[in-house]
Write a structure and sequence with these properties.
The complex is a heterodimer of chains A (228) and B (349). Chain A is of the alpha/beta class and 228 residues long. Chain A contains seven helices and ten strands. The radius of gyration of chain B is 34 Å and the shape is elongated. The chains are: A alpha/beta (228), B alpha+beta (349). At the A-B interface, helix 2 and helix 3 of A face helix 2 and helix 8 of B.
Chain lengths: 228, 349
């Protein structure tokens, strides 16, 4: 497991505002931080800005105002040549999975390692073990078209975890799975957190949040309330 | 991203290869689901589990890049580029040959004058010429040869002896011949003689060869530029078709150079293939023309073939130039694709 490089927050938001084009602000005066090895849920009603917040966390958007610092770098001014290195320290699970349809499950999960220049022989065992662990051992060499929604979700999670990132962002990671599998995935996230990864799960699944006592960032009307 | 029409997977033939079968194309989208569901079964290994593809699937599916139209365009461009290169090489070789032939010979012209003993002047001029270092031989053109030279203008029914026709002496010279000394001695010893070193013709030939070479290179440059422009559009199209792939690659931490390399690889392969096809056809054409030019025989048809293609034989330079042109074209295609990807990614940011 990689160690965070300093004891301070890995991600810090200060008075962050975000608007799309000339539209209204979808996030207003958002201030919070994500500490190393922390676990938090981001929740709120639909349209509250959870996905926008995750996109800010993942350097997919730049704030309209305020300051977002990720691993000590200011997101507003960071060079695009530095962003890939920052993203490699963050794993992300999308609500719509974003699996590549022309790659097998194995290849999709191994994609971050392949992009990082690793040889297949060096990661074959790790990827296979992770796929077995998430219950996709027998679906390793099939393509996403034949996977169910839950299987795609697990493949997407495995892809986010394979590099053992310092921060894991998950957008509705249990939205397409049944309750037993949701509990199992949550255990996976908790285990990962125990190993040092900061975990941010965006969800409006109250049952899921009730299963684990963790910090909650509640989005409402573009503002964030932090419940420790 | 499966092809709804065929149920085949873009960028990978793995499942089809494993099955060692070719499935018929489906005609409607409703057939997509069962076709896709078969993929895992088709790929099934001996242990009942799906088997891995024999080679890793490329990150950018080739079928979203290597369109047949682009391949055909590259082949045509390669063909035209090779023709331009061959034309330049043929002209350059011919011009060089002609220049060499002309430069190997100079002409002494003796103008008729009242009281001039033409035969004595010719003999003296030949004597002077052969004494100059570097001169191999000097031969006076006889009356028949002189008459033959004038026939195109005066016809065959004239009496050359009645006309004040200058007499010519052909002098074969080596590369180290001292033409200035020859000219000086002729002026001293045969005042009515003058030396023509064919410099005017040499200059014209050299100018013509330069113009032809320049034209050929311009055509080549235009072909390269047109190909590069087409590749820019094709690359942008391929990137638009692979928007999700690019997005995911960015999210997993891929750098722009990595993404550009993935696209570049496909375009390089496409370029090599297209350029190989076009260049191969062009070379086959050169060979065919060369074979016609070598036809021997006394019949009028054979003589016509020789006269038609005799000057068009492409030499080793033409073939070598064509091979280099093919490679350059492929490199231009790959390089253009890479630059376009990087620029487009920056614009998207």
């Amino acid at each position: 497991m990689k160690k965070t490089r300093d004891a301070g927050p890995v991600i810090r938001f200060e008075n962050v505002g975000l608007r799309y084009g000339l539209g209204p602000e979808v996030l207003r005066d958002v201030t919070f931080h994500i500490g190393p090895g922390s676990f938090q849920f981001v929740t709120g009603p639909s349209g509250a800005g959870k996905t926008s917040l995750l996109r800010l966390l993942f350097l997919s958007l730049r704030p309209t105002r305020g300051s977002v610092r990720i691993f000590g770098k200011d997101a507003a001014t960071v060079s695009r040549t530095v962003i890939p290195a920052l993203r490699r320290r963050i794993g992300i699970v999308f609500q719509d999975f974003r699996l590549l349809e022309h790659l097998t499950t194995f290849e999709n999960v191994a994609l971050p390692l392949r992009v990082g220049g690793a040889e297949e022989s060096s990661y074959r065992r790790d990827v296979s073990e992770l796929l077995e662990w998430v219950g996709l051992g027998d679906k390793m060499w099939v393509y996403p078209q034949v996977l169910s929604g839950g299987e795609k979700q697990r493949a997407a999670i495995a892809r986010a975890l394979i590099t053992r990132p310092e921060v894991l962002l998950a957008d509705e990671p249990t939205g397409n799975v049944d309750p037993p599998l949701a509990r199992r995935l949550l255990r996976l996230f908790v285990e990962l957190n125990r190993l040092g990864t900061s975990v941010v799960i965006a969800t409006h699944d109250l049952a899921l949040m009730d299963q684990y006592d963790a910090r909650r960032l509640i989005l409402n009307g573009g503002h964030v309330e932090v419940h420790e | 991203m499966s092809d709804p029409a065929s149920g085949q997977r873009p960028g990978s033939r793995g499942p089809q290869r494993n099955a060692r079968t070719r499935r018929p194309k489906r005609k409607n989208a409703a057939a997509k689901a069962p076709a896709a569901a078969l993929v895992g079964q088709i790929a099934a290994g001996l242990d009942g589990r799906p088997a891995p593809p024999r080679t890793a699937n490329p990150i950018v599916p080739p079928r979203t890049v290597a369109r047949r139209a682009l391949l055909a365009l590259v082949a045509i461009m390669s063909f035209l580029a090779c023709l331009a290169v061959a034309a330049v090489s043929v002209v350059a070789e011919r011009a060089e040959g002609w220049q060499r032939q002309i430069a190997d010979e100079v002409t002494i012209q003796i103008k008729p004058d009242d009281g001039l003993d033409m035969q004595a002047a010719i003999a003296r001029a030949i004597d002077v010429a052969t004494q100059v270092p570097g001169v191999a031989a000097a031969t006076a053109l006889d009356d028949t040869a002189a008459k033959a030279l004038l026939e195109p203008w005066l016809g065959s029914d004239f009496d050359a002896s009645e006309l004040p026709i200058p007499r010519l002496i052909a002098v074969r010279v080596g590369p180290d011949a001292d033409l200035a000394a020859l000219s000086r001695r002729l002026q001293e010893e045969v005042p009515s003689a003058s030396l023509d070193d064919h410099g005017q013709w040499l200059q014209r030939l050299a100018a013509m060869a330069r113009v032809m070479t320049l034209l050929g290179l311009m055509v080549l440059g235009l072909v390269f530029a047109a190909t590069a422009l087409c590749v820019v559009f094709a690359t942008r199209g391929a990137m638009a078709g692979n928007r999700i792939v690019i997005e995911v690659l960015h999210f997993v931490g891929a750098e722009d150079s990595y993404i550009a390399r993935e696209f570049q690889r496909h375009f390089l392969l496409l370029g090599l293939r297209g350029a190989g096809i076009g260049g191969g056809v062009a070379m086959a054409l050169f060979l065919a023309v060369g074979l016609f030019a070598r036809v021997e025989g006394p019949t009028p048809e054979e003589a016509q073939l020789r006269s038609l293609f005799g000057g068009l034989t492409v030499g080793a330079t033409g073939y070598l130039g064509s091979a280099i042109t093919m490679l350059v074209l492929a490199v231009i295609i790959a390089f253009t694709a890479r630059l376009t990807v990087r620029r487009t990614l920056t614009e998207l940011d």
